[in-house]
Amino acid sequence: MDRSEQRNRYYNELAGSSLHRLAAISDGIFAVSMTLLVLGLAVPTASEVRTGMEGDLARLLRDLLPATVTYVMSFLTLGIFWVGQQTQLSQVERANRNYTWIHLGFLLSVTLVPFSTQLLARFHWSRIALIVYWLNILVMGTALLLGSEYASRARLFPKEQGRMIIQLVRRRVLGAQLLYLVAMLLCIFDTHWSIALIVAIQLNFALAPPIPLLRRL
Amino acid sequence: MDRSEQRNRYYNELAGSSLHRLAAISDGIFAVSMTLLVLGLAVPTASEVRTGMEGDLARLLRDLLPATVTYVMSFLTLGIFWVGQQTQLSQVERANRNYTWIHLGFLLSVTLVPFSTQLLARFHWSRIALIVYWLNILVMGTALLLGSEYASRARLFPKEQGRMIIQLVRRRVLGAQLLYLVAMLLCIFDTHWSIALIVAIQLNFALAPPIPLLRRL
Amino acid sequence: MDRSEQRNRYYNELAGSSLHRLAAISDGIFAVSMTLLVLGLAVPTASEVRTGMEGDLARLLRDLLPATVTYVMSFLTLGIFWVGQQTQLSQVERANRNYTWIHLGFLLSVTLVPFSTQLLARFHWSRIALIVYWLNILVMGTALLLGSEYASRARLFPKEQGRMIIQLVRRRVLGAQLLYLVAMLLCIFDTHWSIALIVAIQLNFALAPPIPLLRRL
Amino acid sequence: MDRSEQRNRYYNELAGSSLHRLAAISDGIFAVSMTLLVLGLAVPTASEVRTGMEGDLARLLRDLLPATVTYVMSFLTLGIFWVGQQTQLSQVERANRNYTWIHLGFLLSVTLVPFSTQLLARFHWSRIALIVYWLNILVMGTALLLGSEYASRARLFPKEQGRMIIQLVRRRVLGAQLLYLVAMLLCIFDTHWSIALIVAIQLNFALAPPIPLLRRL
Predict the structure, then answer these.
(1) What is the C-alpha end-to-end distance of chain B, expressed in Å?
(2) Of A66, A214, C134, D193, which residue is most buried, by most CB within 10 angstroms?
(3) Residue A1 burial class via C-beta count within 10 angstroms: exposed 0-12, middle 13-18, buried 19 and up
(4) Contact, A40 vs A71, CB < 8 A?
(5) Is B213's pLDDT higher than 50?
(6) Do A125 and D51 touch (CB under 8 A)?
(7) CA of C192, closest CA in chain D: separation in Å?
(8) What does the domain layout of chain B look like in residue ranges?
(9) In chain C, what residues touch D101 (CB-CB under 8 Å)?
């Protein structure tokens, strides 16, 4: 190992080692993505509504219903993944360059949610739009699992709980992704069934109702 | 209780337990929502103003007056709820999964403020737009109260002050929501009276003037 | 003083008392405002440029020059006020409800900068646009000074340095605002002279060149 | 040195001295810039797609391919510079006014990335657009190097590692910028080759593959 390589090793040890800043940029990206979702709710323009005609406005707001459903669905999705990532970051004892980059990959998929949400809101009848949305969830789940797998292998988790954590994460991510897969496949019949099931899954994760069957996943 | 359930219990204890990150994503979402309000102030386009004609620009800026009023009103609204949430988070001793999700619900309603603000700015004559705006404030208040009620029941507040805090929060939220309700009902006569009263209420909360009657609420 | 008033006093002491969160929402609002400035640099649309014609694109980018100048000017402006607020917050020992609301007023004027910047970029020949921009800077400076004055009166500064700090802040804010006033008045002749002087002032604050005359302000 | 100068010296020592807040605003600006990139992926509008015609949507999504490539490229670029800045900030022991302003200059170039990315996405055949993008990377790299050089000269690094750090940073920044320069020059033949090489360079930095030749840079 020559000197230049030694220096690089030193640099790589320092690079991306701040768990605090990884959490900070994650919170920032989640916050902006969650708030940008609202841009998908296009406020009716003044030219579409005759002044004083409440009926015009009521009708236009009713047209926003699909966009509102996907809005709530995506906010829940981002909330679920934010809680998931927060839990993971609170468990690792330190970060490193590779771990940071896995999370940046995860965050890349997070920033895509406003796009795939607006696509699905606009084309809620489209299987392609639904599959794009499902792929986005799949990539987020995969990246989060990858983070845990790497943390486990690189011994970033505390020694005692490491094994238990990784088994738990695998079970939860695979269980959730299985449910999303089923929801996606429902689009063979109708994309609206898929959307309804995804909303139900997200509500289940958010509300954590005391139904043993669902909790076990 | 089988092993998988034990693991889940362990996971749920860790999940959403970071008060620091809950505060961080809240600050992020409030910051973005407050700044996105400015997009409601549409800058006049170059084609609307003849070069050198200050009169054209002056007239267009005057047209922005309703949007400016709702802008300031919504900034104050978000400021009031940010201070309220900050106060609550500074009082709880720890967070948990359920508490985190109540706050995510609260933050969902926060991200809707730029939408309901722009709706009201554009259709300030409309009772529907006003009721949408009022519902937004109602949901924010309800979610914040729910957070305190849950924190009280789940013993997240310090033991000694817990009872006093929850009584105080109930009084303040109910008092404020009563005022907002009155303001909303004024739209039976004219929506502009409602807007004027909401602005007055928000200024009262922001400036906290030394008028005993108002402070008592 | 009856019991309800006692409770309110207790609440007001807790409300807005977190310096850490005040700093966090400030950083968030500054970060979003600074980044939203880029939306003022409208990327030429595909329909304006014939494929393969570099000349078309070059001409359109040249048209973005005024927007680029106001962009850099406003980024510097926000940077100067961010450093100013950071300095103030690093000096106070604690916050309270009133102090927090003065800063929220300050942040309201910060979120207006993307608006007034885009207005000036589009109508750089207009005295009205220039005065709106100047008013924005005036309000930011006034709010920042007000924060220091209040902190001084409410004894939020450390006892020993309190007097020195407030004298220093007054001098700096008044000195800077005097320069901005001169720049604004130059619009009697030509708004472009005003813009040039504001840019020069901001560069002076940012670069802090070793010219005694300027440093003394 | 008269009294007013003494006061200024005191003020300048306090101004911009908070490393924590410099990190916070940096995380905020990176988070917003990374998320704003998604606005470059324009969701097809409802009028472009006949209801039920998946083919229409598929074709429009295929048209988004260049925008998707530049999106991923720019996310990686921002990730690389975020890791670079984080590493630098974790090494300095304190900040000061000048150091803060060098970083604000760096952040100015960061906020320009969504602009130069959208420009390149729209005009991927254009050498001008490519050179604008390359200049953006060049300015970011230069500002980051400048920060390290200043930190080294102003003794902000810890005494023992200071020399080693600055040599390492110089090598890395110059090596990377050399690669970007080569990529830019490829536009003499075809801008798409330039884009391909930049993507390859960013992937190399992100994935840090175990190829000695590349790691040595």
Answers:
(1) 48
(2) C134
(3) exposed
(4) yes
(5) no
(6) yes
(7) 23
(8) 3-216
(9) 79, 83, 206-208
